[in-house]
Prior knowledge:
binds 6-O-phosphono-beta-D-glucopyranose, mainly beta, Beta-galactosidase, Chain A, domain 5, globular, 10-stranded antiparallel sheet, Gal_mutarotase_sf_dom, isomerase, 8-stranded antiparallel sheet, 319 residues, glucose-6-phosphate 1-epimerase activity
Amino acid sequence: MGRSNKPSAIGVGASLPQPTLSIKDNIIEASLPTGQSVTVHLYGATVTSWKTGGQEQLFISEKSHLDGSKPIRGGIPLVFPVFGPPPQNHVTSPLPQHGFARNSNWEFLGKSSSEAPGRDSDHTDLTVKLDFGLSHSMLTDEFRAAWPYEFGLVYSVTLTTDSLETSLQVRNEGQQNFEFQVLMHTYLNIADISDIRVKGLESKTYLDKTLQGTSHTESSPALAITQETDRIYQQLDPSVPVVVASAKDDQPLFSVTREGLTDVVVWNPWIEKAKSMADFGPDEAYRNMICVEAGSVSGWQTLEAGEAWEGGQSIKSRL
Ligand SMILES: O=P(O)(O)OC[C@H]1O[C@@H](O)[C@H](O)[C@@H](O)[C@@H]1O
C-alpha cells in the first residue's frame, strides 16, 4: 500500500499542528492536520466514518438507525461476546445476534497523539488514538443478566495518515473464567461490487453460511462477489493482508492485516437479503459495500480470572 500523495507528512523542527477533537451528542470526531478524520458513535463504539484523501472509506446505510435504537448498519460495528446467532445451550444463548457490544453505550476514555516516523527521514507523521471503555456495570439490566461476567473492554481507534487501526483489549475482572468471540464488522465503501476482487484467501478453509455452514476450500486467488456471500475464512496468518483489489487493474483498494485475529468473514447480502433488511438502503447499496471482518469466531477464546486478551486490525486504503 502506498502512502497518500496528499501532503501527509510534517517537517521535523516545525511546530507541529495537533490533531483536533470534537465531542458532540455522543459522537467523537478526530482529525489530523493532514486532513484524515474518523468519527465514532459512543453507541456501540461504532466507527461511522473514516475519511482520507477527502473520500469516505467506510460504507454506511442511508437507513441506518443512529439514535441508539438498533445497532448501526455500517462503519465498524464491534461484535462481542458472541458472533452471529448465539448457539443453543450455551452461556451466550440469551444474548442477541452478535452480542451486546454494538448495542451498548460506551464511555470515551480520552485521546492521545503520537508522532511516528514518516515516509522519509525528514518527516514525522502524527497519529491520534481514541480509547473507549465498556464494563459489566455499564450494561443494561437485561444484558447484565444475560451475561453475568465482570469484564472490562478497552477499544482503541487509531487514525494515521494512511491507515485506520482498531484494537480491543478484553479483561476478565471477575473470579470465573469466561469464553468470548469477537469480530470487527468492517463495511468497506466501494464504487461497485463487480469491480472488486478479494485476495489473500486462496487455499484457505471457510464455512459457508449460505450453504448451511458447510466447509469448503477457497480455490480462487481473487474472489469475485457475484451472489450472496457469507463466509468465515479460518486459520489465516494475521500478518498476511486480506486485500480488496480493483478488478480492472489489480491495484489494492484496501488491505487488512490483523493481530491475534485468525478468522476473516467476507459478507455481502446481495439483492434479496439487502431488500429484506429494514435498515439497509437504498436497496441497491449492496453494490457499494463489502464487509471484510477480522475476528476470532470459529471457536471461543477462554479468558481466565484476572487475565487479558488483545486483538486488532489495521486497514490501509489506496488513498
Ligand atoms: O444483520 P446483522 O446482525 O448486522 O448481521 C449482518 C451479517 O453479519 C455477518 O458478519 C454475518 O456473517 C452474517 O450472517 C450477517 O447476516
